[in-house]
Amino acid sequence: MSTYGGHPLSPLRSWLGVAVITASLFTFVTTELMPVGLLTPLSSALHVATGTAGLIVTLFGISAGLGVPFLVAWTRRVNRRALLPILLTVMAVGNLVVAVAPNFGLVLVTRLIMGFAHGMFWAVAVSMAMRLVPGPHANRAAAIALSGISIGTVVGIPLGTFIGGLAGWRTTFLIWSALAVVVLALVLVTIPSLPSENAVAAREVFALPVRNAALRIVMVTVILYVLGHFGAYTFIRPFLEKTDAASSAFITVLLVVYGIGGAAGNFIAGHAVDKNPRASFGIACGGLVVSLLLLLGAGHSPAGALVAMTLWGVSFGAANLCQINLTLAAAPDTFEAAMSINTLGYNLSIALGALIGGLFADHLGVRSTLWFAVALTAASVVLAVIMIRAPRETGDHDRSSSRADVAVEA
């Protein structure tokens, strides 16, 4: 039985709290990525080019990434139980505004504001989950919470596409606004007081990857594969629409299959990462390269597109879970700070990937976005191999140095 503020928590309430944090993460991550599957109808309704519509993903990622180190530091005295409802309220109101927005400008500004809340919660959520349960079960709680990020990342786009196809893009945002309200109510009922712990000043957050070589190489590898992935995947619907297999129904099926594959990849990695996280990460990055090449070579046929999208989903789902576990392993005593850096790198990569992909799509055609992705994911494989071959003692030494150098504030 875990205890907070002198009040014991039953195992049931502890694990319910972990489940609610997982649901919160799923809500935040799908809110970020859902518009990718809605770019075509959204751009048409708001009278902007598809590449321009991609800015709603870009600006969301920029604010989530750039704001998080400062927001985590500035709120280091704030009880996390009080912080989460505020962030969910921003999500609920923001999705409602997007659903009824009469013009693209309002959508863009709203998404920018929502990004700050998203980045803030992404950085603190896993440590919250780990604190809800007794120490021996903390890693299991972290894995469950991480699944909210991993599954949300891979199913957010196909889920948005599926619901948007049935009810329209505005209704999709209304549904997500309601989802945020439901999760908010669950947070108020299940999450106990969680005074901030393991938080550091902003300057120490930025110093962490400089002092910690293991964290640094993980983040460079993550930036490469995320840049490549979202450079292509932001525009996967326009790409598929230009193939011989194109039909709205079949594209929706492909994106749903991708999401199912991502969930499967998350599950597979959850078992493999305990045995060899570095090798698991390298294999996942390699799968990304193969799936992209397969899509370029055989994606014109229904069977080829189906195989490629399935492999892409499995690989990306596995890579996401592996990279967060590698981040935790690289900086276990300053995990909230390390996740701030992870959130910064990951979300800026989403933003830049969407932006660069938009430039490729508008000037060289959507097919060029996949070649861009092949180049960057291949580079991530090279770095992953370097990680696999690197002595584990080096990472351990760096983590020890990080613990001594980074001053954790009470």
TrEMBL record:
It is a multi-pass membrane protein. CDD domains: MFS_NepI_like (cd17324). The chain crosses the membrane at residues 12-31, 51-75, 82-102, 108-129, 141-167, 173-192, 213-236, 248-269, 281-299, 305-331, 343-364, 370-390. Residues 16-392 form the Major facilitator superfamily (MFS) profile domain. Keywords: Cell membrane, Membrane, Transmembrane, Transmembrane helix. InterPro entries: MFS (IPR011701), MFS_dom (IPR020846), MFS_Efflux_Transporters (IPR050189), MFS_trans_sf (IPR036259). The keyword Protease does not apply. GO terms for molecular function: transmembrane transporter activity. Its main location: membrane. One of its GO terms (cellular component) is plasma membrane. It is found in: Cell membrane. PANTHER family: CHLORAMPHENICOL EFFLUX PUMP RV0191, PURINE EFFLUX PUMP PBUE. This is MFS transporter.
